[in-house]
Amino acid sequence: MHKQQIIESLTQQLKQYQSSVTVEKVGTVFEVGDGIAKISGLADAMAGEMLDFGNNVFGVALNLEEDFIGAIILGDYQAVAEGSTVKSTGRILEVPVGEQIIGRVLNPLGIPVDGKGTISTEKFYPIEKIAPRVITRQGVNTPLQTGVKAIDAMIPIGRGQRELIIGDRQTGKTALVIDTIINQKGADVICIYVAIGQKESKTVRIVAELTARGAMEYTTVVAAGASAPASLLYLAPFAGCAMGEYFMDQGKDVLVVYDDLSKHAVAYREVALLLRRPPGREAYPGDIFYLHSRLLERAARLNKNYGGGSLTALPIIETQAGDISAYIPTNVISITDGQIFLESDLFYQGIRPAINTGLSVSRVGSSAQIKAMKKVAGRLKLEMAQYRELAAFAQFGSDLDEATRKQIHRGARLTEVLKQGQYEPVPVTIQVLMLYAAVNGHLDDVPTEKVQPFLADLAEYAATQGQRTLSNIAARKDLDADGERELIALIASYKQTVDYLVKSEQLAA
Amino acid sequence: MKLTTKQIARALYDALKDSAPAARQQVIENFVRLLHELHIVSKAEKIIADFVTCYNEAEGIEPVTVETASALSATEQAEIAGQLASTLNKKIELTQLVSPLLIGGLRLRYGDTVIDGSIEARLRQLRQLA
Lengths: 509, 130
Fold this sequence. Notes:
The complex is a heterodimer.
Chain A (H helix, E strand, L loop, with lengths): L2 H14 L5 E12 L2 E6 L7 E4 L5 E7 L3 E7 L10 E8 L1 E4 L7 E2 L16 E4 L22 H6 L9 E4 L5 H11 L5 E10 L1 H13 L6 E7 L4 H20 L3 E7 L1 H14 L13 H9 L3 E2 L8 E9 L8 H9 L2 E5 L1 H5 L12 E2 L8 H24 L7 H17 L9 H12 L11 H15 L1 H10 L4 H15 L8 H5 L1
Parallel strand pairs in A: 8-12, 10-15, 10-16, 11-12, 11-13, 13-15
Antiparallel strand pairs in A: 1-2, 1-6, 2-5, 3-4, 3-6, 4-5, 7-9, 14-15, 16-17
Chain B lengths: L4 H14 L5 H14 L6 H16 L1 E8 L5 H15 L2 E8 L6 E6 L2 E6 H11 L1
Parallel strand pairs in B: 1-2
Antiparallel strand pairs in B: 1-3, 3-4
Helix pairs in contact in B: 1-3
């Protein structure tokens, strides 16, 4: 490039540059503290409008009162001083959306925090958006395979559903959703994991795990750590939802995990109390229900005319000592389409995932299951329910009749079948095979402690010897008489290779 | 119900507007006595400020601050006031402020609005562009 050229282009640029007189609306900060600011002036600011505090510090107007505005400050509020000027921007808070955010770790404002460089997207979505209306929606009809046998069989989750995961601390809530994300590999689902108030170390561990299993190729992590200001914790799930909505509008399937909404509620309570909104039950503000319902209403399954995309929401709630009747748990239970209960008692008994199959429900139900799974799962639910009843009863007496003994025998095996290690999602066809074997009594002659290795080896055996049978089930998504015969043959031929089966006469004795 | 300073200022304005010019002194005296009785003399400053806002609003007066690098002449001031009066459709009350930081041009401020045509603002814009 020549000197002359440079000078020419420079003069050209300078000619085009026109500095006009700027007209701005300004206000003055008259109170600041703990992440909030009160501002006088700015009479025409909108609710939820972004405010510019200067020095790259932004805020959001939340309270519009007669003489002042209450705003939350995003980022470093120590840089904002009393008397400093605030400009209105005329824009609602937005986050960057697009393909570029996939595989990245972002803060709730869409700024990368993973050190992999900046993101330059063309599009921005407002973090608060009205949920898709009735005419744009359609019923949930496609399953979202979690890879967890107990969930896919008994509490199926459909694409576009909102399923709550609730339990005490250390019961495997996060492990469950991470397994679900890992299982979406090759399923054409974009995942967004929103960490709200989680320890940064935990977030790093999750990202490392997702990366190691190749799940970051389709996952975005939105992280607002435990030390982040309450304003950012409050925005995080809305930001994650907005990022997901972009892909939904592209006709894709999206899974958004909010981990967890109890901390979100606490952050919102902090913001609301600082803004002097009146406290209600448990000091939460009156609109805490509306806050969560408008977030979760944005989960939807759009119909064909609107692109056919979907956004599945998996909110997590942490209970204290199993108290599901506290304020926030009951609120979110009533908003979602079902819940998965995790119990620490079951966890310590070694039943992992520690899902209480009696209290967990999915209100969308079996419409989100493939036919083959429906066939085996219906019997499973019934047998498990009977087993639970009898198991509690049988603890007191040893003299049991034959039918009861059989039922308990079967139930113990079913419980074993539903156990599953972490990071071990099972493909749906293998799930059908395992559950078919269990509910049809093919495991009755396998000792309880051998059920798990038996199933693991059976899966391996089926992958080599029964490939055709499995791919048939996968293609037809149904289990017809032929398929059933093939499964029975497969299980029988595998059984010949193991030596720990209990003989039927021993069984009777 | 507790009265706000705004409401008190508004009441004073209404009382003064309805009374004859000769009686105004009396009205103000009565008003001060009322403040005393209500134990809100300490809020007098705020009430006066609210009264000014109330008066300006009712009479269609817009207080405008004009900031320049060097002092404006009387004709320049009148020109600015006239221009603003026709665009805002209000009587203009001009306050002059000299701040050499602007380098050149002028900055107008009324209500929440700032109209910035100073060299300093242009330089700031140029810096953002780079």
